[in-house]
Amino acid sequence: MTLGIEHLTRRFVDAPHPAVDDMSFTVGKAEVLALVGASGSGKTTTLRLIAGYEPPDAGRIVLDDARGASRDITTDSPQRRGFGMVFQHYALFPHMSVAENVAFGLEARGVNKSDRLGRARQALERVGLADAGPRAIQSLSGGEQQRVALARAIVIDPPVLLLDEPLSNLDPARRQETREWLRLKLHELESIAIFVTHDQEDAFAIADRMAVMNEGKLLQIGTADELYRQPTSFHVAQFIGRSTLVGARRDGPRVRITLAGVSQEAPVASVAGNPASEARLTAVVRPEMLAICPPGSPDTWRGRVDSRRYAGSHYVYRVSVEFEPERYHTFELVSEDGGFAERSEVGIKLLPKPIALLFR
Amino acid sequence: MRRRFVVAMLVMLALLAWCVVLPNVSVIVGSFARGLDDWRTFAASPADREALWSTLVISIGSVVAALLIGLPLAFLLGRFDFRGRRVLSAVATLPAALPPLVGVIAFLFLYGESGVITRLVKHALGLEQPPWSLTGLSAIVFVHAYTMYVYVFLFVAAALERYDSTLDEAAAGLGATRGRTLRRITLPLLTPSIAGATLLVFMSSLGSFSAPYIFGGGQRVLATQILVSKLNGSMGLAYVETTVLALAAVAALLALRSLERRRSFALSGKGKATRVAVRSRTARAIAPIVAIVVVTFLVLPHAMVVLMSFARDGAWTTQILPPEYTLDNFRRLATDPELWKPITNSVGMSALATVGNMVVCFIAAYLIVLTRAPGRRLLQLLVVLPWAIPATAIALGLAATFDVNQPIAGRVLLVGTFWILPLAYFVRNVPVVTSAVEGSLRQMDPSLEDAARGLGASWLLAMRRVVLPAARPGLVAGTMLAAIAAVGEFVASVVLYTHANRPISIEILAQLRNLSFGTAAAYSVLLIALVLAITLGARLAEGRVERI
Predict the structure, then answer these.
(1) Which residue of B has its CA nearest to A156?
(2) Would you write out chain B's pLDDT as a tens digit for each of its 548 residues?
(3) How far apart are the C-alpha atoms of A263 and A256, rounded to whole Å?
(4) Residue among A51, A53, A156 minimizing CB distance to B175
């Protein structure tokens, strides 16, 4: 089973740009895809278009079944699509018990009462709430409500499961735990799962692939590792993980970065963007590509420690390097050595790790 | 300080016992004054049986009709966007701005035997006879539907504003059809508002007096029977009829309250009401036309009353519209002292009653919400009691209680004096003002008053600077509703008025009897203007709150 999104576009009146702008991607069977982006980037609209709550202005949504037969569902109502959806605020029916909520999708499909209550119970067991059936929705905690919402969505065996910010209403401690749990559950299901989040940690933890959106456009889709190591745009490079963008020159398979007259080199991981001018390249420098050294070490950039933060197994430093008079790059880097004081002079060494390059 | 509250509580309880409980007790006692004789007469009287029956039929019919109009309209305006929506929602509550009697006579001018629309249809179809007659049960229900659907509309529209539409989306995503979503999700969640509105319509219809009185066409209902019995001097029978009417009202109240409670959920409040643009081409074409028709229907009664107020009395015979127009009707009101008197009466009496409501209801609400004075439960019950009892019953209770001077029994002679009507208006409006103030005070953090006192403010200063500002929105809204209800009051007035203190509504009726339609309409326009003035006054009072 595959879900294909083809050139999907959705405009809202009096919005400066389309909420979803010519978006295309496919999701395969048992794959978990995260739609990530800042608020207003169009990720929730994309989810609502897929669920059928919004009509697209252009483009198609196609569902290929297991036998390869392809069905255009662009104009199908949400009811006909039957995609399970977990809403951000869960949208549990407050006048029904937990079991009635979970059984509602089966009720709508005409399943008789004893069958649907049995299947609702199974679904509740799968989310670890076997005995919650008779309880009132109001008596559930936020985490429990979230599980009930998931049970309600999976009980109808949806071909596609959609989740809108599934973790945003949980407190941080619960969130860690639920993230793990949700990852296991979604992979157990073997249906397509698409979830929206503004938190890349959630996406890293749960998704197989991530799609990064900005201003309605799909910027890049790939595994977390691909997005991190080989970003194809400035936005993705800055949005995913920590990075400092620095002007660079390419020298065959190597990249040379020169700051305040000191050049350091590393291998090239990838080159992306519009290759209009070879001279204007930008390197995406990640914290693990740098090492902090005593000041004056040979072949290092001279910097100054802005801040030092203890993070358990290591320290996180922010170091400014003056590359032109009064212009600074600020690098983030980690070290097990906590011996460099704030405001002290240090040297920054570029390690020989592959660096992604972007054309200006 | 606590003693002050206990004293205030005792005064409040005594006051309400005197003007709310005592009259009802008098009625019940009065119905047994001759043993069970009057009850037997009631049970044996075919007229009373007919009246009871038609009262129930009218009430249920009005509820059904109000729901049939109010619900779809609330959904249409709350859920869809189409051309004409703004105009439609602006006029959707217009019928509520018509004082009850004025609405009725507007309908008479429009749809009565010689009404404009009736003549128009008759003329257009070339009929010999009017195509319908505006009499009997259906006519009463028709008028009720027009004036009372507003309750349903307002209650349901407010609930839809708070309604979380993702619940409907969730149901659709789970495979439910629109019908099933409406039946299983939306309507059950709107039950409290629907029940509340139903109750209001049912109670108003139960006690409705104007419509049955003006064009009942010999149709008896309990409210009119009570007046007939009273005028015939059969006070015992009037008391029995009043008791039965009040019992029916209380039964309805209890039944619907339980429904309201059983289905009461805090709607998440995160609900974002989204209006969907109408997309079907036919619907898009039809929507503005339907909107125009509905708007016309809603505005016509107002327009008709205004038109009639300029029509020369006696000149309108067989034409579709009145042929001659004049300012005489208004000029007469202003120059003839006999015609001017009802206006000063209405304004003076409703001002008195409303000031009484402001003071008493504020104190009652304060005691209920912000103090722990003993007897709060009882006070809460007493302040809503007049709401559960039809106005005719309240009026008859007052008539039964204050017709003799027995100060020991708490009875003073008020019947036949000026004071009985302001008292009746006051009693009728106790529930609305108190609950409005209660609502505002409940939104205030009770520790605010303590905080002010902790900062060294005297009780009076805390009251003036903290409690009163918090109570003001409710006080303004409640007072406005009370003043509007009092200035056009008809139902209690018709039982209690004397020639000296006759209010506008009674004078309208007298002018109608005289066939001075123009004068009656001029009074009606004046009433509408007074209602507008009160509304504007309330807006200004609220504006002052903003500035502070």
Answers:
(1) B174
(2) 578 888 999 999 999 988 888 888 888 988 898 888 889 988 888 888 889 999 999 999 999 999 999 999 999 888 888 888 888 888 888 888 788 788 888 988 898 888 889 888 988 888 888 888 888 888 899 999 998 999 899 888 888 887 888 899 999 989 899 899 999 999 988 888 888 889 889 988 888 888 888 876 677 888 888 888 888 888 889 999 999 998 988 888 888 777 766 665 555 444 455 677 776 778 888 888 888 888 898 899 999 999 999 988 877 777 778 888 888 889 988 899 999 999 999 999 999 999 999 999 999 999 988 888 888 889 988 998 888 888 888 888 888 888 877 777 677 777 778 889 999 999 999 999 998 898 888 888 778 888 888 787 888 888 888 888 888 888 998 999 899 999 999 988 988 898 889 999 999 989 988 888 889 999 999 999 999 899 888 888 876 554 44
(3) 6
(4) A156
Smallest Cβ–Cβ distance between B166 and the set A84, A91, A152 belongs to A91
Q: Which chain A residues touch B277 with a CB distance below 8 Å?
A: none
How many CB contacts within 8 angstroms connect chain A with chain B? Answer: 76
Q: Are B265 and A152 a contacting pair at CB < 8 A?
A: no
- Give residue for tokens 């009985």: B420
Instruction: Give bridge partners of residue A210 from the DSSP assignment.
Output: A34, A222
Is the overall model pTM greater than 0.95, yes or no? Answer: no
CA dist B516 → A5, A208, A261, B193 (Å)? 74, 84, 104, 42
Cβ proximity of B187 and B111 under 8 Å: no
Contact A206, A182 (CB under 8 A): yes
- CB contact, 8 Å: B81 with chain A? no
Q: What are phi and psi of A87, to 5 degrees?
A: -80, 160
Q: In chain B, which residues have their Cβ closer than 8 Å to the Cβ of A156?
A: 174-175
Q: What is the largest CA-CA distance in chain A?
A: 79
Among B172, B188, B268, the residue with its CB nearest the CB of A79 is B172
Q: Is B180 on the interface with A (CB under 8 A)?
A: yes
**Which residue, B508, B382, B419, B544, is CA-closest to B102?**
B508
CA-nearest of B440, B498, B495, B448 to B471 is: B440
Please judge whether B176 and A104 are an interchain contact, meaning their C-beta atoms are less than 8 angstroms apart.
yes
